[in-house]
Amino acid sequence: MRILGIETSCDETAAAIVDGRRVVSQRIASQMQVHARFGGVVPEVASRRHVETVTRVVAGALADAGAAWGDLDGIAVTCGPGLLGALLVGVSAAKGLALVTGLPLVGVHHIAGHVAAAFIDTAITPPCLALVVSGGHTELLRVDPPFCLTKLGGTKDDAAGEAYDKVARMLGLPYPGGPEVDRLAQSGDPAAYAFPRALMEDEGFDFSYSGLKSAVHNEIAKQRQRGEEVNPADVCASFQQAVVDVLVEKTARAVIRTGLRTVVVAGGVAANQGLRRALTARAAADGFAVHFPPLALCTDNAAMIAVAGGLLLELGVRHPLSLNAEANLSLAAWQQACGQRSG
Ligand code: ATP
Ligand code: FE
Ligand code: MG
């Protein structure tokens, strides 16, 4: 199935054509530079940029694929969660295109899209576990056939990526902070500071990162008060170790609890070198398989939305032209809208 995917949930305007699990073409117009001077994404600015860019990006993806509308089997678009104004641009564009082309339309949950990135160019099929670590989410999910996602646990406060971005800001590092913290952590001492590992001993699969964020803030403030020079590499390495320790431990426990021996990692923080190393080592030690998508498919893109949309269209899922965007769309509500029970 050849699917056009459109993603505008945050600060990337993206369109892609996929054929099953293969990416035929993809265009991503990042607004990173626009938002960098504000130190974070400004929702209204993001919406306006999407409006300016979305048709050009879609036309580009189609041209790169050498495809005409008649070559496609469906249109998939992110319908939530995300910034409402940003989502509305993609949803409206997709609906307009579905109306004139007559192609079937399917709305995709952004996190289901991140999970589907793991299927691109691989033979991985559900059942499996998914660790989603992004700017707005930190969740452990089980993925059952055909494509049913059930949340095992998630963050009670900040997402992992959000914590990375906030720590980067405390250290005066450029936005977005995650990659910068990751880079600095390589040369720091992960044992320099004993930052908290929240809920590490807890039996459940929830996460909490606001305490860790405060601990880093307090440590930096304490050192500055004493007139000491803060070593950013040590702070980054110790912070990253605390984040990674909890993610790895909970994931390994979910493998034991569910008996599912394949783990896919998704979302922007899946690009993190420390997490990749630690989880790969733990998987080898415990005897489970772990898959990280290539870096470009970890962060927001439209190929993942198109692949997820293709899976649903194959199952006969179609959404009406009254499809709406929802900023806080839950996985369970979305699965219901797809006519699937959450596992
Ligand atoms: P969501 O998917 O939850 O709606 P989002 O789409 O904004 O949020 P992504 O684009 O998937 O999130 O990921 C962006 C996040 O990933 C940012 O917080 C960024 O700092 C973080 N990130 C990217 N690369 C790295 C890295 N190498 N190490 C740690 N964090 C990283
Ligand atoms: Fe995302
Ligand atoms: Mg992003």
Automatic annotation (TrEMBL):
Signal sequence range: none
Record field: catalytic activity: L-threonylcarbamoyladenylate + adenosine(37) in tRNA = N(6)-L-threonylcarbamoyladenosine(37) in tRNA + AMP + H(+)
GO-annotated biological processes: tRNA threonylcarbamoyladenosine modification
Enzyme class of the recorded protein, top EC level: transferase
Similarity annotation: Belongs to the KAE1 / TsaD family.
Function of the protein: Required for the formation of a threonylcarbamoyl group on adenosine at position 37 (t(6)A37) in tRNAs that read codons beginning with adenine. Is involved in the transfer of the threonylcarbamoyl moiety of threonylcarbamoyl-AMP (TC-AMP) to the N6 group of A37, together with TsaE and TsaB. TsaD likely plays a direct catalytic role in this reaction.
Protein name: tRNA N6-adenosine threonylcarbamoyltransferase
